[in-house]
Write a sequence for this structure.
């Protein structure tokens, strides 16, 4: 059973292209505004960013601690922005995130002003600004962008789950949002068997890729680390509280808007977007302590 609850528009190819270019212009302009508020800093030199920069010079050599998180370094290498140009490449990822936010807003039948305002919210809050202060050179913005593209592609299960696979290739955190992604598809298409097959196939392909990289790479920041450094339950409770403080200080009044949406009767089943994304984030913190990074997934609801 299909539903119009997702409110996705059905544009002509010409309108789709025009609005994509318009969204790109919005993303570029808002990123400039965000840099005026918080200038982009240099890479720290001692974080995970250096691993991705090394990979971007030659991703097939499988260097660093994250050779399985190959998507962003591969794209940097393929576009000529690998190695020394990697930092500028990550700036482009922020433009892509803001453009994707504006484009999704237009596809959800928002006005041009809506697109600018929603993208501006992302531009001035943690999903953009924190990556210029503490997480410079990190690849998370492309994960967020792919999730947004999945909203646009929700009517096509083949494209939808292909994007999910691509997202896994950037960071395995995509797997923690499977309940939300399943909800997205169910709001559009009540048939579930094909989704079960395609989601399982995507996970199987990623697992095969991960095991291959693990057998070939000289070093790998793998699941073994998390198993040997358990957080749950005490550490997870601490991280949940730190994430709550982070969201309050970096999203500010945007949380009040989400609370209003939860209260509004017209929201209906769409309230589940917030809770399913939060479920994914809370589950991530059962094994990971990056509370100032992964809690920024709140931009999705």
């Amino acid at each position: 059973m299909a539903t119009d609850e997702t409110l996705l528009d059905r544009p002509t190819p010409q309108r789709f292209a025009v609005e994509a270019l318009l969204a790109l212009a919005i993303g570029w302009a808002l990123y400039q505004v965000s840099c005026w508020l918080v200038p982009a800093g240099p890479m720290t030199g001692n974080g995970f960013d250096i691993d991705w920069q090394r990979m971007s010079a030659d991703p097939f050599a499988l260097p660093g601690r994250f050779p399985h998180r190959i998507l962003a370094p591969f794209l940097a290498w393929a576009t000529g922005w690998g190695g020394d140009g990697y930092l500028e490449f990550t700036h482009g990822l922020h433009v892509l995130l803001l453009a994707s936010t504006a484009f999704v807003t237009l596809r959800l039948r928002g006005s041009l002003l809506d697109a600018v305002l929603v993208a501006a919210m992302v531009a001035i809050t943690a999903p953009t600004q924190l990556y210029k202060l503490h997480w410079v050179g990190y690849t998370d913005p492309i994960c967020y962008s792919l999730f947004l593209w999945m909203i646009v592609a929700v009517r096509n299960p083949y494209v939808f789950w292909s994007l999910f696979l691509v997202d896994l290739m950037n960071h395995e955190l995509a797997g923690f949002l499977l309940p939300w992604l399943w909800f997205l598809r169910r709001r559009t298409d009540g048939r579930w068997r094909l989704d079960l097959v395609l989601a399982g196939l995507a996970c199987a392909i990623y697992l095969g890729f991960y095991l291959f990289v693990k057998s070939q790479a000289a070093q790998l920041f793998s699941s073994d680390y998390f198993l040997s450094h358990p957080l749950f339950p005490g550490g997870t409770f601490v991280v949940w509280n730190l994430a709550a403080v982070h969201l309050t200080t970096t999203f500010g009044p945007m949380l009040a808007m989400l609370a209003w949406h939860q209260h509004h009767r017209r929201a209906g089943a769409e309230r589940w977007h917030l809770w399913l994304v939060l479920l994914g984030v809370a589950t991530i913190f059962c094994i990971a302590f990056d509370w100032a990074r992964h809690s920024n997934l709140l931009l999705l609801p």
Q: What stands out?
A: The two ends are 23 Å apart (CA to CA). Confidence is low (pLDDT under 50) at residues 1-5. The chain is about 65% helix and 0% strand. Residues 13-37 form the longest helix (25 residues).
